[in-house]
From TrEMBL:
Cofactor(s) the protein requires to work: Cu cation
UniProt record similarity statement: Belongs to the multicopper oxidase family.
EC number, UniProt record: 1.10.3.3
Gene Ontology MF terms in the entry: L-ascorbate oxidase activity; metal ion binding
Limits of the Plastocyanin-like domain: 10-122, 136-302, 396-526
Protein name stated in the entry: L-ascorbate oxidase
Species name: Penstemon smallii
Reactions listed under catalytic activity: 4 L-ascorbate + O2 = 4 monodehydro-L-ascorbate radical + 2 H2O
Domain of life: Eukaryota
Subcellular location: Secreted
NCBIfam families with a match to the protein in the record: ascorbase (TIGR03388)
A cellular-component GO term for this protein: extracellular region
Amino acid sequence: GKVRHFKWEVGYIHWSPDGLEGVVLGINGQFPGPTIRARAGDTVHVELTNHLHTEGVVIHWHGIRQIGTPWADGTAAISQCAINPGETFVYRFEVDKAGTYFYHGHYGMQRSAGLYGSLIVDVAEGEKEPFLYDGDFNILLSDWWHSSSHEQEVDLSSKPMRWIGEPQTLLINGRGQYNCSLAAAYFSNSSVSQCNIRGGEQYAPQILHVHPNKTYRLRIASTTALASLNLAIGNHKMVVVEADGNYLQPFSVENMDIYSGESYSVLFTADQNPSNNYWISISVRGREPRTPQGLTILKYHPNSASKLPKSPPPVAPRWDDYNYSKSFTNKILALTGSPKPPTTYNRRIMLLNTQNLIDGYTKWAINNVSLILPATPYLGSIKFGLSNAFDLKTPPDHFSHDYDVMRPAPNQNSSYGSGVYMLSFNTTIDVILQNANALRENVSEIHPWHLHGHDFWVLGYGEGKFSKKDEEKFNLKNPPLRNTAVIFPFGWTALRFVADNPGVWAFHCHIEPHLHMGMGVIFAEGVGRVKKIPTEALGCGLTGKMLMNNVHK
Ligand code: C2O
Ligand code: CU
């Protein structure tokens, strides 16, 4: 493969993602950051300079497994030290598998501040995709607040917690409309006015140009901080063919759910009346929507881009129609011939997801431990056997048998922790994610869980509390391989993966405020096999001191 070189500078810039000017985290003066396009087998080389004045920064390559390069995973306090203002760090890693990916900040709440972009990996030269298309588009979905990520961070960590609320705007490739709507003309009672956009504005929608009767691949990834979304193309059916960089058994839908951390490819054919244009819409799911739909236009050649579609934008299924979401999710199966999971597991870890109060602070906890990250990156402290760098007590593999997941916990307290799940190298791990009632009665939220360093097989979903006999219903025949999977309210999700990638890997809810409130765990495997970690990755905390002593010796 080739080496693809990029030189990036991260800095705050004035930008108008939705018509209201604010400050975003940009790369090379751009928001969203530049799209990386490579071929499977290529090496991506990003020389990242931190131009922020008072904050560190890191970038995570979401969905890239970092086989042999765990120090390039871009997770502050886990795989590396945050890059200080003025410093440069080189990310160098192989993109080994074709697919739709993205990258984003992984320090504090810098993803909410707009630090993200697309990463597209095409098949290696001479290889073929298992489906055909005439052209492709790439859309990265996100949500946007008018309060800064710093203010949000303070709100979430206050006592009592101040909830950040729903996003003001949904963005498609960093573009949305707040002060106006592309579709106001269709709603007589609308209080916002029809947008008067010329096309050059930062918040002008990116129009998708198609030719009649051609078939296109739409690559979709969601890096939302909070929102679960439903995407539709007015009047057009979509055939889902890829999820998180893995091929699926193709299935056809009118609209689809997409959770933060997920990516998909869908095929559609421009086979509708060519004298019209059509909507592409994204709408909020799983939370009561207080954010207008995100919209852009599918423009048939040679229509004008300003020609509005005939009918109003697609209406999404009701936000709390979870059966709808489940039936979509259950259609996601691996393409015939995909790698199959091992039929048994070596270790099963049950992870109970709860919302808690610690000294009056609202937190999320896993088996009653709310994650706080240490000052020294785990990858260094484990590799060099430094004690005192994090909690040496292993977090629990189980939660109490009589825990009632349908009710608020009788004891809402929990504790902070930085312990690690040490996984034996090359063993098969089952994770059962168990949802539960949150602090308030009759409330249980959706959480999309994302695993670094691996894909996992999604063996099944179920309602209520997982029990041993539920495993009879596991799908071992064609479960999809993914890196993100959702747990539905009051339900469980079963995952299986092989701990075969030496390194330290985060596994967490991809809702950024939830992660910030402790909703994650740390897995480590085969760290002794990790080759020489670049010293620039470890210049902080106890590893920083250790490196300094080595120089003086
Ligand atoms: Cu895209 Cu740890 O996340
Ligand atoms: Cu969550």
